[in-house]
Design a protein that fits this description.
CATH class: Alpha Beta
Helix content: 10-25%
CATH superfamily: S-adenosylmethionine decarboxylase
Number of domains: 1
Shape: globular
Distance between the termini: 43 Å
Largest sheet: 8 strands, antiparallel
Length: 149
Amino acid sequence: MKTQPCFQHLLITAETDIKVARILNERRLSTHLLEMVDAIGMTTLIPPAIAYSPDENNTGYTGFVGLTSSHISFHHWDCLVPGVLQYDVFSAKRFDCETVLESIVDFWRCRILTTTLLDRGDSVSLRDLRQPKDRATIKPVRAMNTMRL
């Protein structure tokens, strides 16, 4: 019996301790992404890609790892005080959001964390994608609370 995809999408915005920027590098960030993949029981399809943006007022690392079920990505702005992290986990396979949040708080030394969990599972099908826009089903967003750490 085939398992129906769940299309779970976790969006995270966090303030990070400014000191975390001093310890970041491509190797540590790649390791972090691979550890996250393992922690949530996913399989890597595309190895981690990490790059540093030197653009004025937009400096920081961006990272991505492709999963067989979708992706994990982030951008960390080290030009801001405190640092700002945008983190995204999207998968057609269910994962434990608490595991993701614990890993992010520990690795990124987060102070404030805001999360939104989108459940796209009931409204996504090939037939839905072919319907005109006025017939599209829109599901409400289920938001999680902001946590001050």
